[in-house]
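Morning run. Coffee first, then this:
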Amino acid sequence: MTSIVLGRVCDLGPELSAISAIEVPADQARLRDARFDAGTDSWSLTTADGRCISARILIDTRPSTEPTIAVHGMPNYFRIPGPDTTAQSRLVAHCLELLRRSGSTRIEARARIQLRRRPLRALATKFYLTGSIPTDEHVYDGAATLTLAEGDIAVHARLSGHLDAIDGRYHWRGSIAGELPDEVLTKQRSVTVSTTGSSAPARVMERTPWGGYTVTGVGAPPFAID
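And here it is:
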């Protein structure tokens, strides 16, 4: 299982020293140049010189004061921001081992994951583990409208969902990018997400470290599932 390392491989720490890694120096690419392919559960990253690199996992080792290691809405993506890179690398290594043992191709945090003084227990319960998107999984990537009490806001949405075999209901989730008021995370988390011809109630879960927001919904999604 190959990983793209955005930053320096030497910052991975001994726990990740044995992984197959493709190093992309931070001055040669940006995170916003990376794209996740939901059809193959892999990342591709275009460098400054025009190279396109693809791998299952994307690990960001650039130093940052933002302590998040994994976040919902960014599958197969991990951060090792420091300062305790050894402990952060150990946690990422556990996640990759969890992915390998499960036989899955996608690992996505259920919520924001940060390093705690006490180790995370029942690590598998903190992540969604799935295979490549099956035929009954649906994906939407495009323009959308978020409706709040104050009015409509144009956003870009990346959404996917599936019919759950346990409760028989359709579950969808994803990320949105746009200028949302602060109240969306403090007072009004319930919103409506609309695409061409479809709309659905949703809940804004959290803000990602990259300026977007994660949303989830249960029931008919705001995109076609034919």
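Residues 138-218 form a domain with the Thrombin, subunit H fold (CATH 2.40.10). Good start to the day.
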